[in-house]
Design brief:
The complex is a heterodimer of chains A (91) and B (713). By secondary structure, chain A is an alpha+beta fold. Chain A is built from three helices and six strands, in the order E-E-E-E-H-E-H-H-E. The two termini of chain B are 48 Å apart. The chains are: A alpha+beta (91), B alpha+beta (713). The interface between A and B is medium-sized, with 16 and 22 residues.
């Protein structure tokens, strides 16, 4: 799974205000909103153009000084949630 | 020579809390039409509230009631077109559209162009015919039957099963959980619209509106799918978002292709949980009232329609930007009485100038104030009016809005508030204090003005702690608050026979049987009131039972049964200082009220005797703070009857600032122990309120939902 590449699909819109750090994922099919923290936002931005789990883990490790295992678990959990919502495709 | 400015006539600027689409159509055109445009608002009486808002219409005109016949309406439209040079007409009311469609050829002959479905097409998808249309085209729709004879309703309702929707033949719908509610709802809807009622199966699910424009060749020019994200008690979308769900769009296209249609259309769908196919609920021959959202989403359907009417449409289909949202809000203004009078007497008048660009400014040395009650979800809360009045005061500091729900429209109003915060939806006074203290820690304020009945006891309980924090309040004692409650003020008033007004006979009922007995004792008609809110008139024992059932649904364990008084409605607003002395008073006569009893138009009418009597009453109550007395003047005896005492500002209170009295400003000063200068109300202004959709960003909504705070730049 680590080497697979994922990308957000066309039903995702990302809205964010750089000043207030209020970042939101919008599912444009259902109007579901998900408020995002900074880490989620970084992953979503990376997934706009496609990224592997390894890419994402590397980015999270570098930004947040988190152990590799914890970073990988978080990334996989996040990918799994996006997949369950139908918002991500395997590239 | 044809003038270069486009002149467009639009109808449907009224509707109060269920707004007609004309105002949003006008605003969308004003903001999206590429060239100069002049908007002419057409209405069937002078109180077309949305048309009076600043910048909504360049001119206002009245039309004869279309029930007077085609010839009369045609004559008026031709005369207006001749005088004002209308290029196009966009009617937006369900009942008038078949009439205008019949007249379309003759209107076009004088240069007034429209684009409307034929009367036959409208009839084929009317509420009465929609089940057949859906059956013929294999379109899912809720089970629906038409009951013409009201005497047959209990039989059909019991056979149909509960819950159900009772729908009027033209508009209006009420959910009924039993035969008493169904019968009462049917009686009211049939009285309003005639032709019996429809019983419709309730399908629980997510609701969508699809708005579209179809060209003269019946092709789809543009289409926008809108999801109702937040819905109020009436089932109206109070927060809506543009979506691009392929399933909804596919079904909408199949319905649109089955219609024999041109012009604007609204399809209402419900998508049952877990289902793939939505059910078609209604087809309306005009835009939805939330049509401004299409403009916010870069696909202005009113502009597309106007292009189609004028034959200017470019060949490319426009696509709306999904994720665009609005929250339903209100706008208020004060209109010179002379202008209303001119419209009533002469049929035409110039519109109101646009309001100056919102310019929120705070005096760095001014008082900072926090205001609660900023929702327009079901009823318009008073906090919005309080804030607007304070913005009109000369030396105010920062203003903060405090709400309880994410759909509280005021939380997103950057022209009113410097920042907004969510309060805990809890009955615990300590939780309220802790939240206010936390907000005050980061954003200090000098005064807090609670504006909701239900929260005031909690504010009374924490008032001393707030005072210690440096936050002043102007509130009554717990005893005074309880004594003005509906359960005591009518049965144990502080003044038995007040001067200036009477207290209607009232009996407390704790069961349906007691409510019927009380009604028999008082004589019909009566009104049943919940202790906190809700009031339902009843003209018979069966209507009393239905009203009792409705009040129970609303959580009312008991009800006051009161003699119904018919007549004009008045309200007296006052602010009492800590010595129980009214420092300012204002009486209005209500000119337009919605079915919830809220005031949408009013005029100031001094009533010295009533005000003096009410002032005595408030002194006897030992009242402190803002208060509103509601009265009905009996049409037979001309005597005022007390209907209710509200322990806070009324929602129309910004009107006091227009009149030069500014009650919220007086309350804030009195709370801080500052002198209040009593003024004299200006005359000849009329208060007017209208619904208005306010675009919001999803990030603002998320900030309120997750962090409970939103700072406005």
């Amino acid at each position: 799974m680590s080497g697979r590449s994922y990308a957000l699909n066309s039903r995702v819109a990302l809205e964010g205000d750089g000043d207030t750090e209020d970042h939101v994922l919008v599912d444009t099919h259902t109007a579901t909103l998900c408020a995002c923290n900074d880490a989620a936002w970084r992953i979503l931005f990376a997934l706009r153009s496609g990224a592997t789990v390894d890419d994402l883990v590397t980015q999270i490790e570098a930004e947040y000084e988190v152990a590799p295992d914890a970073a990988k678990a978080d990334v996989l959990d996040f990918i799994s949630r996006l997949s369950a919502m139908g918002l991500i495709d395997e590239a | 020579m044809k003038p270069d400015k486009l002149r467009v006539a639009i109808s449907g600027f009224d509707g109060l809390d269920v707004p007609h689409p004309g105002g949003p159509v006008a605003r969308a055109l004003r903001e999206s039409w590429p060239g100069p445009i002049e908007i002419h608002a057409l209405g069937y009486d002078p109180f077309m509230t949305g048309a009076w808002m600043g910048g909504a219409a360049d001119e206002l005109h009245t039309l004869p009631d279309f029930t007077e016949g085609d010839a009369v309406l045609l004559e008026r439209l031709v005369a207006l077109t001749s005088r004002f040079g209308f290029d196009a007409f966009i009617p937006t009311l369900d009942l008038e559209i078949p009439v205008i469609a019949r007249l379309a050829g003759r209107l076009e002959a004088v240069g007034l162009r429209t684009l409307l479905p034929s009367p036959d097409a409208v009839y084929a998808t009317s509420k009465l015919r929609l089940p057949k249309f859906c059956h013929d085209h294999s379109i899912p729709t809720p089970r629906t039957i038409h009951v013409l004879d009201q005497g047959d309703l209990p039989l059909h309702a019991d056979q149909f099963g509960y819950p159900m929707f009772i729908k009027g033949t033209v508009a209006g719908a009420k959910r009924a959980a039993n035969v008493a509610q169904a019968t009462a709802a049917a009686r009211g809807l049939n009285r309003t619209w005639g032709g019996g009622v429809l019983l419709q199966e309730v399908i629980e699910g997510e609701e969508y509106n699809v708005a579209a424009v179809l060209a003269r060749d019946h092709s789809i020019s543009a289409m926008v799918s809108i999801k109702k994200v937040g819905v109020n008690e009436k089932g109206k979308g109070v927060m809506c978002t543009v979506v691009d769900d392929p399933a909804i769009e596919r079904h909408a296209v199949s319905v649109l292709e089955a219609l024999d249609w041109c012009g604007p259309v609204e399809l209402e769908f419900v998508l049952p949980k877990g289902a793939k196919a939505p059910s078609l609920i209604e087809v309306n021959c005009r835009f939805p009232s939330g049509i401004l959202l299409s403009h916010s989403a870069d696909c202005s359907l009113p502009a597309v329609l106007l292009e189609e009417i004028l034959g200017q449409r470019p060949g490319t289909r426009v696509k709306a930007r999904p994720g665009t949202s609005f929250v339903r809000d209100i706008a208020e203004t004060a209109v010179p009485l002379a202008q209303l009078d001119r419209l009533a007497r002469f049929g035409s008048v110039a519109g109101q100038a646009p309001a100056p660009t919102a310019n929120r400014r705070a005096d760095p040395d001014g008082l900072a104030v926090a205001v609660t009650g900023v929702s327009t979800l079901d009823v318009v809360n008073a906090g919005l009016g309080v804030a607007r009045a304070l913005r009109m005061a000369p030396d105010m500091g920062r203003l903060y809005g405090l709400g309880y729900g994410t759909y509280d429209s005021g939380l997103y109003r950057s022209e009113l508030f410097d920042a907004t915060f969510r309060l805990p939806a809890s009955d615990d006074p300590d939780a309220l204090y802790d939240r206010l203290a936390a907000i005050h820690g980061d954003n200090p304020f000098d005064v807090v003005v609670p504006s909701l009945d239900g929260e005031i006891p909690r504010f009374i309980e924490i008032a001393d702690r707030l005072e210690a924090l440096g936050v002043a309040t102007l509130l009554p004692s717990a005893e005074a608050f309880a004594r003005r409650g509906k359960d005591r003020v009518f049965t144990d008033p502080p003044v038995r026979e007040p001067a200036g007004f009477a207290i209607p006979d009232t009996i407390m009922a704790k069961s349906e049987v007691e409510a019927v007995e009380a009604s028999s004792a008082l004589g019909y008609p009566v009104v049943l009131k919940g202790v906190i809110s809700h009031a339902l008139p009843a003209q018979s024992a069966s209507e009393v039972r239905a009203a009792w059932s409705r009040l129970r649904e609303k959580g009312c364990a008991e009800a006051l049964v009161q003699r119904f008084v018919d007549g004009e409605r008045f309200a007296v607003s006052a602010v009492c200082d800590r010595a129980y002395e009214p420092v300012t008073m204002l009486t209005i006569k209500k000119l337009r009220i919605c079915d919830r009893g809220s005031t949408w138009s009013a005029i100031g009418v001094p009533q010295p005797e009533l005000e003096a009597g009410f002032a005595d009453f408030l002194r006897a109550l030992r009242w402190v703070g803002p208060v509103e007395g509601e009265f009905i003047r009996d049409e037979l005896t001309e005597r005022f009857h007390l209907i209710e005492i509200n322990p806070r500002f009324t929602a129309w209170i910004a009107f006091s600032a227009h009149l030069g009295l500014n009650h919220p400003y007086a309350a804030v000063r009195a709370a801080r122990g500052l002198p209040v200068v009593a003024g004299t109300a200006a005359a000849d202004l009329v208060f007017v309120r209208s619904c208005e959709d306010a675009p919001i960003t999803n990030s603002a909504f998320a900030a309120i939902a997750t962090k409970g705070a939103l700072k406005h730049a």
